[in-house]
User: Fold Inositol-tetrakisphosphate 1-kinase 6 from Oryza brachyantha.
Amino acid sequence: MRQLSCSFICSKTWDRTSLVFCKISCFFMLSYVLASVARCQPCELAADTWPRRAAQEPPLLLRPSRESAAAVAHPFPIPAAMAMGRPVRVVLDSSVLLDPSARPDCAGEEVAPLRPGAEALLRRLRYSNLGVAICHQEGLPTNESGFLEKTAKLYSFGYIPLTSPSGSNSLNEAMIEWSRTNSCFYVTSGVHEGLLSELQNHNWAVIAMDNDDVIKNSGVLRIGMLQELLITLATSIKKVIGSSSTLVVGYVMKQSREEDFAKRGAFPIYPSKNNLIFVPLSFELPLASQLQEVDLVLHKITDEIINIDPNSSISFPKGISFSPGMSEIIRFVEEHCNFCVIDPFKNIYPLLDRLQIQEILVRLEGLNTEGRPKLRAPCSLKVENFCGSELQKQLTEANLSFPLIVKPRVACGVADAHNMALIFQIEEFSNLSIPLPAILQEYIDHGSKIYKFYAIGDNIFHAIKNSMPNASHLKSSSGGKPLTFNSLKTLPVATKEQQLHNRVQDNKSLDINLVEGAASLLKELLGLTIFGFDVVVQESSGDHVIVDLNYLPSFKEVPDNEAMPAFWDAITQSYKLRKRMMQT
Ligand SMILES: Nc1ncnc2c1ncn2[C@@H]1O[C@H](COP(=O)(O)OP(=O)(O)OP(=O)(O)O)[C@@H](O)[C@H]1O
Ligand SMILES: O=P(O)(O)O[C@H]1[C@H](O)[C@@H](O)[C@H](OP(=O)(O)O)[C@@H](OP(=O)(O)O)[C@H]1O
Ligand SMILES: [Mg+2]
Ligand SMILES: [Mg+2]
Assistant:
């Protein structure tokens, strides 16, 4: 185990544990198309700010558009230049980015708004590991060309103001040069017939968007909306590589989480070292057709919860309403039991319910052995309300004493899942505003140090974070009132002085092997590829208490160069295990 910076420790890699998975059925259309470029005259590259790429990069074939399904019967010759091991460049013509219906703003100022969906596309292409440039034709109004230049700079893309050559339609040297060393796409919303043969000679591939002028079966790749572009690129790259080990991973999660992962390089469209290609599933397109193009889906289903009936948690997903897009995915998976989902929805539902989490954690206590710290769940009690004369009796029967931490039974997916309270005496339950049903947990004095563990496939990492101080520090400031907070936003963590004080007192260390054993058993019990759990060490007893369990956490504290390869490996292994299980 290596001690890494910022109190981060990478623990170990387990043996491949057996996880139950269904078989994946993948279908990819086989064909090669090239298309012509819209009136884009050859150009001089303004500044080749295109990111350098690793030497060995695969070439590209294009998936025929759905209308030209006949192309499947007549696969186009694969140009020699689209040989294995080449970087991929994508040139976006201004016509796909600028909103054609834009009107000057009320002050008469020419504005250059982006077409709907363009900002999301640019944001995703920025972290796609593809070389991207924006181009525009000569004669574009200066406010628009200026806007595009600024946009290219903002996203670290290349910028190509096209200038007309001496009347010829031939591709200019720069574009020809690129196609010698890169596999290139040109995306436009117009098609200029004149350039088609030039492009075929120089191995440019063009994607024409929303254009009916495109001749059918002329090898032109057509998309209807900008939202189709990424999946078109992704499935083309997959086809070109032509290896069953290359997987297209469709992903679904909230935008903030996607951006956090994307900025870490988690979602390359150009394959990662594990041969994984990531593409966002768009809720603006039919989900079934997208799901037929990917090998598996990675999702954080709880990001797509609209609301939960907290009284239905024992029968999840009943009582949960999901976004329409997520509901479509759930339906598709129900109808295609061989489709690979990471992770199966039924494996995640228990982690929405702190009572079920408690029942899972209690099962870990079987790992305990003499002479080692005790691993356990906190003593807990589920309550339907905070009043009732029986409450004190219930607490006693549950072996609970104050202080108590009160958490909603619903663990995540809705805004108030993280509204909590620290209660010091029974009177403080009156008018308590924590969502019901609730879970009352013993509050563990743990010296404001929490160990956040992350099981990412066969790898386990943990980070030490500042946590809530011992109850005595909090009671003094509570003034006889419950201490209410939101664990994601306003967690009352220890002050610097309290942390220093704790460091002096800190005499109970973490038994890493004990927790690793717990993580391994949790992985088998949960059937999850990536999960996180929080461990505190009780100061008085040294007990290792697991207070929380989460599905697909952000593992922000784990350095990217450790986390990303583990992330990709976890996905690949889960997929392979599922395939193997289907073949047996
Ligand atoms: N039983 C406990 N005893 C002492 N401290 C606790 C206990 N339960 C939680 N905490 C403290 O409160 C914090 C939030 O609790 P918890 O992790 O259960 O909330 P959560 O909303 O599930 O957070 P997450 O964002 O990790 O899912 C913990 O990180 C820890 O600092
Ligand atoms: O947003 P909901 O569905 O309520 O669930 C939360 C999880 O419970 C937390 O574990 C996530 O925090 P981490 O990703 O840091 O573990 C937290 O991630 P976030 O802080 O990035 O939103 C949430 O996913
Ligand atoms: Mg937590
Ligand atoms: Mg949690």
Remarks:
- The pocket of adenosine-5'-triphosphate (ligand 1) is lined by residues 378, 405, 407, 411, 418, 441, 443-444, 446, 450, 467-468, 487-488, 491, 534, 536, 547-548, 550 (CB under 6 Å).
